[in-house]
Specification:
about 240 residues; alpha/beta; Rossmann fold; DNA polymerase, domain 1; 2 domains; six-stranded parallel β-sheet; about 10% strand
Length: about 240
């Protein structure tokens, strides 16, 4: 029997080349959505700043860095508490919603995201999306992007099977199950600290794409990249 370290990504014995940057082969790939496939984070920032500006507050990465990847309500609680806003978290979300509804259909792709997804799909790699966004928001964000049709599984934050959102591992474990994959065979692409923590808790390997404003030293990922352009499928053993 071949040593597991020398088994290729689809279970065939191969030379797990020295250039591969992961500790073990993978067969399935799961992507977060915001900041990983679509560049929605500036839209969240714009809408949030519009809500809090009347109170003389500023929404910057010292706050946002600990909000991304979490549920809308968890993030709202953090924002209201940290800035001392005279609003209930639910009030903040209600004021932000129409702003986001108008902005989300304009969301562009993260540079190189579609090209990577297309290459993985052409290689026959089963793909999934695991996002804390509710299903309605997922639809609004992806409405102009027909390439999302290649994802075999999409699990959103309001899925009733989820007991707890990121940094809990539930959403990744459910996505793996929907893909018919064992967690240890999945690779996750994430941009948030909560998402990286969730993927690792699920027993999956993680590639992190931190926003330039984030401290890279805080990311306990298997691989850190600044852009998809610096990554080749051979780096992943695919």
């Amino acid at each position: 029997m071949a040593d597991p370290a020398s088994v290729g990504s689809f279970g065939n014995p191969s030379c797990y080349a020295s250039r591969v940057k992961l500790a073990r082969p993978v067969s399935h790939v799961i992507f977060d959505l915001d900041g990983v496939l679509l560049d929605t984070e500036p839209l969240y920032t714009r809408a949030t700043q519009e809500v809090i500006s009347p109170y003389g507050k500023t929404f910057d990465w010292s706050i946002k860095g600990d909000m991304i990847g979490r549920s809308s309500l968890d993030g709202a609680h953090h924002l209201v508490r940290t800035l001392g806003l005279p609003l209930l978290p639910e009030e903040y979300l209600a004021r932000r919603k129409p702003l986001l509804d108008a902005l989300f259909p304009t969301a562009p792709e993260i540079p190189g995201a579609r090209a990577l997804v297309d290459r993985l799909h052409a290689r026959g790699v089963p793909l999934g999306v695991a996002t804390s966004s509710e299903q309605a928001l997922y639809r609004a964000k992806t409405t102009r992007h027909d390439w999302f049709g290649v994802f075999r599984a999409v699990v959103c934050g309001d899925d009733p099977r989820i007991g707890a959102l990121k940094p809990a591992p539930d959403i990744f474990l459910i996505t793996a199950r929907d893909l018919g994959a064992a967690p240890q065979d999945c690779l996750v692409f994430e941009d948030s600290l909560a998402g990286v923590e969730a993927a690792r808790a699920a027993g999956m390997q993680v590639v992190a794409l931190p926003d330039p404003h984030m401290d890279r030293a805080r990311y306990a990922a298997d691989l850190l990249i600044d852009a998809y352009g610096e990554l080749d499928l051979a780096d992943l053993g695919l």
